[in-house]
Amino acid sequence: MKKYYFLREDLFELENRINKLRSKVKDLGTEQGEANRQSTENFGHDDACQEAIYQERVVTLSRLNDLILMLNGAVVIDPKGPFDKVRFGSIVELSNRKRLRIGSYSIFAEHPIHTVSYNSPVGLALIGKAEGNEVELFGQKLTIVKIT
Fold first, then answer.
1. I need a labelling partner for 142 at 20 to 30 A (CA). Which of 26, 55, 67, 109 fits?
2. Does the residue 69 lie in any domain?
């Protein structure tokens, strides 16, 4: 099973998204049943509406299944110092004044600092670097000013 690494607050956000998608799938099933009933009453004249709801439900179910797989492979990481190098859970201050949080696999809880995934190109460029190291990000050379 593939592992997905999460900060605790990001795992909580993943669980919230799964619950919302489950609710949406249920609502779309109800809508689909109603559209099917109306199509039957109108001798098939509302099939486009029924098809649109069906397609939305298929897409939603696919996303839900992807997130459930992530949840099943979730590993929670509670970062503890020292933060002498950039790693999962670090907050990195760059010379252009941007502050980035190295977070979970594309699922981010609301956070006052912009979060990038640990496996994104930006995350991969920063991980393992120390204060004072230069990195090329956003088309420019930047220096890591501070890691917390």
1. 109
2. yes
What is the total count of domains within the chain? Answer: 2
Q: What is the structure's pLDDT at 40? A: 61
Residue 82 burial by Cβ neighbours in a 10 Å radius (0-12, 13-18, 19+): exposed
- Enumerate residue ranges in the chain where pLDDT < 50: none
Q: Kindly report the pTM of this predicted structure.
A: 0.71
Asked whether 28 and 53 are in contact (CB, 8 A), the reply is yes
- Same domain, residue pair 51 and 113: no
Note down the domain range covering 119. Answer: 91-147
